[in-house]
Amino acid sequence: MKKLILSMVLVGATTIAFGQKKVIKEAEKGFKSGDLKTALTAVDAAATNPETSGDPATFLLKAQIETKIFGSDSSNTMETVQTGAAALGTFNKAFEMAGSDKAAGVGKEVYEEDLPGVPDNLRPYSIYTLKNVAFDKGIERYNDEDLEMAYEFFNLAGEIDLKDTTIHYNAGFLANDLGKFEDAKRHFGYLIDVPEYNKLNAYYFMVQILSTEEKNPEAAYELVTKAKADYPTDKVLAEYEIQLLLQLNKMDEAMAQINDALSNDPNNTGLLLRSGYLKEQAGDLEGGLADYKKAVEVDPNFFEGNYYTGALLLEQATKMLNTLNDLSDAEWEKQSPIIGKKADENYKDAVKYFEKALEIKPDNTDIMIILYQVHTRLKNTAEAEALDKKLTELLGANWQEN
Asked: Among candidates 218, 222, 167, which has minimal Cα distance to 190?
């Protein structure tokens, strides 16, 4: 009797095991034939049954089915992304259950290489297949100008491979463009961690995010210092460093860096402008003016160079005229014509720089107002009237009261 009962138990166990294998076979058949709904239902049943739920191969099959469903969904919406994310989670579970070993068994199958151009029936449907399909969907969405979804697919692909520089550059670029600055920093950070990658653009983006969007010049300067260790001769990084030193009020260090940079690139208009600014701030107006003028000599169409030169000439003229206030009446009578004449020379000199700046930016009403005021002082009636007419057209009849 005991023998009969034991035999019945064994038969029951064999029947259950056979039944579960049949479910797995059904899932495999649906996966291969494209009946993915049936395949997913079958593999979900196997994944919850005690006889097959402990087998990493069950979850590998489920991940493969989910990947195929992900690839077959041409709507490419957020729901599609969620399907892909579920497949990634299932792949990771299968890999962990298999001992996290990429060299053998199910772990090896999870990370089997997915070669481009292989016919669909020969694709391994591994985690790399999921990555490649997500990347292709990102490209499709980008070409259709759906940047939000393009980012989501690139981001999904990037979660699979932290060292795929193309994916992370695309994801970082789009995240930055979409205002997702934390995401952008994460993707550019992955690029910076890849030793052989040319990471200059990643550094540029990261510095801009830290200094401009997050208003954190300390962190930006720290990153520039790291970047310059990798790329010591890069001129853009050198300019970023100077700009950040100025933001941090480290004037002496900024001046030292400017002088060093100018020794290698003496005709760099941006550096000359910064050098002039630092000298001006330190009270060396003549030195600042010389740098501004040199920047304009190098590039006559350099707007900032023309504007800063004109502005400093006006500042010098104002300082000259202000000295008259401290004189006695007798001295004022004596010095006023002399100092007034020198100030007028500065005003006349400033005109040509502001006129060039206005030529470069012909709709800049701020420069028109400055020129109107200078021509009025110099009694250049025709020029002042022409500017008044232009400003009235642009700003209204009461422009001087605003």
From this structure: 167
Nearest CA among 261, 252, 374 for reference residue 310: 374
Check pLDDT > 70 for residue 199.
yes
Q: Is residue 100 part of a domain?
A: yes
In a domain, residue 176? The reply is no
Residue 167 resides in a domain: no
From 69-78, 90-99, 239-248, the region with the lowest mean pLDDT: 239-248
Whether residue 70 contacts residue 87, with contact meaning beta carbons closer than 8 Å, is answered with yes
| Euclidean distance between the first and the last CA atom of the chain, given in angstroms as a whole number | 109
Indicate which CATH number applies to the domain containing 129. Answer: 1.25.40
238 has pLDDT over 90:
no
152 part of a folded domain: yes
Residue 333: its H or E element: helix 329-360
What's the structural domain count of the chain?
1
Does the CA dihedral 312-314-315-317 come out positive or negative? positive
Domain that holds residue 121: 14-160
**Could you give the C-alpha distances from 111 to 62, 70, 89, 96, 316, in angstroms and in order?**
15, 18, 14, 12, 71
pTM for the whole structure: 0.70
Residue type, 361: K
Three-class DSSP category at 230:
helix
